[in-house]
Amino acid sequence: MTAYARAFVIKDLLLTVDGTDYSNQVTKVLLTPDQNVQTLKTGVPDGAITDSDSPTWTAAISGINDDGAGSLGHALRVARSSGTDLDCVYQPKNASGQDKATFTIRPNALPFGGEVGSFHLMDLTIPVVGEPDFSQSS
To answer: Which of 48, 50, 57, 138 fits a 20 to 30 Å CA distance from 112?
Structure first.
């Protein structure tokens, strides 16, 4: 069997937030579902009932933590302070015919500061409103 042809290392991604490309400011984008599974055991040997709840999603975004004009950090801080949700598009591989997720985030507070001798970075877990829409890029 030959190797799977669509495998790749993430190195040329696309992340847009409200139409602005922030790909050169991020080091990680990861959408993760949290879905509770419940099991009810009844009084008979094969009486287990299992069901799952609807998932809630988060977007883990890491990268440069800057508050200057044109920065992702600034866009997230402004949206948070004004209570605005932000529409995002993420492609792990920036090319046509590749996996793409479209989703909306509700920014939360960003950290500020860091360790001497280190880059000023952010490592965020941001709530996603609803579920991402997964498709292929054109």
So the answer is: 57
Burial 88-120 (b: 16+ CB within 10 A, else e): bbbbbbbeeebebbebbbebeebeeeeeeeeee
Sequence-separated (6 or more) residues with CB below 8 Å from residue 95: 12, 137
SS3 assignment, position 38: strand
pLDDT reading at 121 higher than 90: yes
pLDDT at 101: 98
Class of domain 14-136 (CATH, top level): mainly beta
Share of the chain above pLDDT 70, in %: 100
Q: 5: burial class by Cβ within 10 Å (0-12, 13-18, 19+)?
A: exposed
